[in-house]
Amino acid sequence: MACSEDAVKTQPASPLYFGPQGQPLYGVWHPGAQAAASLAVVLCSAWGSEDLATHHLLKHLAERLAAMGLPVLRFDAQGCGDAAGELGEADGIAAWTASVHHAVDEARRRSGVPRVALLGLRLGAALAALAAVQRDDIAGLVALFPVSRGRAYLRELKALGASGAGQRLEAGGFQLNAATQASLASLALDALPNAPAPQLLLVERDDLAGSPAWVEQLQRHGAAVQCERLPGWRGLMQDAHRSQRPEAVCERTLDWLAALAARLPATHAPAGLVMAQQAEADGLLERLVQVAVPAAVPAGVHAQAADDDAAAALLHGVCTVASHLPASGHAFLLLNAGAVRRVGPNRMSVELARRWARQGHLVLRIDLGGLGDSEPAQGGPAQQPYPGRGVADTRAALEWLRSQPGIRHCHVAGLCSGAYHGFKAAVLGAAVDTVLAINPTQFFPEDSALPDYKVAGEMARYRASRWDLSRWRKLLRGQVDLRRLAWLLVRRAGSRAAAPWRELARGLGLPLRRDLAAELELLARRGVRLRALFSGSDCGEELLLRQGGRTARRLIGTGQLDIHRFADADHTFSRAAERQALFDALTLQPQAEAGTPEPQPTPALA
Predict the structure, then answer these.
(1) End-to-end Cα, the chain, rounded Å
(2) Taking a C-beta distance cutoff of 8 angstroms, is the pair 85, 162 a contact?
(3) How far apart are CA 202 and CA 211, in angstroms?
(4) Helix, strand or coil for residue 220?
(5) Could you say which of 49, 148, 315, 550 would form a disulfide bridge with 189 (CB–CB 3.0 to 4.6 Å)?
(6) Residue 395 and residue 430 in contact, taking contact as beta carbons nearer than 8 Å
(7) Can you give the pLDDT at residue 503?
(8) Which residues fall within 8 angstroms of residue 470, CB to CB, at 6 or more apart?
(9) What distance in Å separates the CA atoms of residue 174 and residue 49, rounded to the nearest whole number?
(10) SS3 content of the chain, % helix, strand, coil (to 5)
């Protein structure tokens, strides 16, 4: 049987770069609990928004497998995640399949074992199969919810609201170019010339028919195939902070790989192999960094932090600079959006970091504790958009940036929960010049079942649909929850009625609980500028102006608070045009704030 979860946290893991020079791939190596191993495992992730939703699952499987004694490599393929570059017009299927080959070679080199198992999720399962049929060192393949036919997958993407300009298909903020779509359209796993491995485990979705044609083809080629339908698909494929780990799938996968490894002889891993911690591509130098967080948590950071006295884990991040440009003296910190790892929704944090770096700035994108590759504080939960130590983690990351040579100006940027953490870190004294808050939905920890941002958001939706006849028909049919609507109206009226009394209390110098105006004033006195950027569909601007009151409006007049609106954008800027407009608004700002600094040599990272 697979080892228990109690052993998971004992296994160290190391991030690294590997693969071709000029197009390095990003990976995390889990060396395993034993000096000798019989099998290495390579994990091939899903694509696009499915990858963001399932990152925590593959990380969990890697840790469990390593605790069992199996070394594991999980990785980002070319143009994905933290790997180098963009696909441009290249065939993504060919590029990603080549990345699987590089990952298998790296796993063999580091583990010393001659045989590797591939574990692929969704499109990653198809890529694993495409690579495996070209090799003779694959002992087994685990295909979790595999994409067995590319045409069906393309139809699924389009049904989920895909759009795009020209020949590009955009789904969930990720783009597929024409060449990749053509390769996907011709993808059919039941047409592969041979079996990808002698042993296969296929875990099918429990809401759709399976892949009987592929199973029959594998059996004709003499492969031993176990095909199972297990629960967990719907719970897994949700937004990252809601995604639920499919425990039955995990346990079956671990047991199957343990049995496969038990049939193979063990080999000792080679000693002295170096983990490449930096890579250069397209004129940019990226380095993997770790930021230590002090054990002490500042008072007032978050209610959850008070009961946790343990030291936070190291925070994992990527620091980006231009390799041949004079340094600007500016540094930027990019924070997690919700529970999405540091690459950001739509991979926007990677794109923005590299764009800023090409202007000569130093950029750190980091995972707060319990998110992405960073472990939670001891005893704390993972996958929490507002982790108890999130603000303390943000302050530690900003202090790391300030310590880098040549840095004179520091800025923090984040979307949604990242905006909250950046804002609160500045309020609590972090040394920053600018807070770039993108679609903040709250300015204080929410302890209500119906928090202010939900009230504002739902009321905005009601207002937007007041001329929609279908909504009125639903009301007349009794299909609208009138009790909830009434409660929303009461909450909204209460908030509006309280506003003038709070302004009066401020004028009399009386202390107020959860006083955004006081925090805005504090930042203004310190010379910290707040830039708030809002999508047209978001409620954050209303909350900022209502809770900030006259102070917010006065600071807008003085330029210390700047509000920028993107009328057609959604919460995560999932469409390319709106995303580029956001980047333009963010990219031009540092020069306008601090002028054009004297050119400095590109700093070495401390």
Answers:
(1) 45
(2) no
(3) 9
(4) helix
(5) 148
(6) yes
(7) 66
(8) none
(9) 7
(10) 40, 20, 40
Q: For residue 439, how many other CB atoms are within 10 A of its CB? A: 26
Stretch (H or E) spanning 503:
helix 482-507
Buried b (16+ CB within 10 A) or exposed e, 102-118: bbbbbbbebbbbebbbb
Dump pLDDT digits (tens) for 112-168. 999 999 999 999 999 999 999 999 999 999 999 999 999 999 999 988 766 666 678
The Cβ-side half-sphere exposure at 83, using a 13 Å CA radius, reads 26
Mean pLDDT throughout 434-440?
Answer: 96
Tokens of 557: 């007049």
Task: List beta partners, residue 46.
Answer: none
**Quick count: other Cβ atoms within 10 Å of Cβ 345?**
25
- Nearest-CA neighbor of 80 among 185, 178, 174? 174
Indicate whether this model's pTM tops 0.70. yes
> How far apart are the C-alpha atoms of 65 and 32, rounded to whole Å?
7
H-helix or E-strand spanning residue 401: helix 390-402
**pLDDT band (50, 70, 90) for residue 456:** low
Percent of the chain exceeding pLDDT 90 equals 68
Instruction: Count Cβ atoms below 10 Å from residue 89 Cβ, excluding itself.
Output: 12
Report the DSSP pairing between strands 284-291 and 278-281.
antiparallel
Minimal CA–CA distance to 63: which of 39, 41, 83? 41
Classify residue 423 by burial, with Cβ atoms within 10 Å: 0-12, 13-18, 19+: buried
> How many angstroms separate the Cα of 604 from the Cα of each of 274, 277, 326, 361, 397?
20, 14, 12, 12, 17
